[in-house]
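WARN retry 2 of 3 for item q-0093 after timeout on previous attempt; input resubmitted unchanged.
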Amino acid sequence: MESESATLEIIDRFNAAFNRHDVDGVMALMTEDCVFEGTDPAPDGTRYTGAAAVRAYWERFFANSPVAVFTTEDRFAAGDRCAVCWRYDWGSGHVRGVDIFRVRDGKVAEKKSYVKG
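OK item q-0093 returned
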């Protein structure tokens, strides 16, 4: 199991790559069997399993939101788990939400996203 400081460092690197819209950088920090649960469509979002499916999602996401940025409002870790409260701005608006991460062997194994409203 990862320590809290190691988990936070990995998530900070992941979020930095994410805000650069760097798909290769994001995927370098995800496991081959990673799971991502997005927020769309409401109410439950979509679940993507495996690096190929998650990569394809990020490629579409960044192509469709070229000026979008996530701002971390708060974050904390408990072992290999991390919660990040965020604000997502896309130019003409924003939403707030939270991501729940699980880290395994120095990489993100799971990212579940939830949005307010």
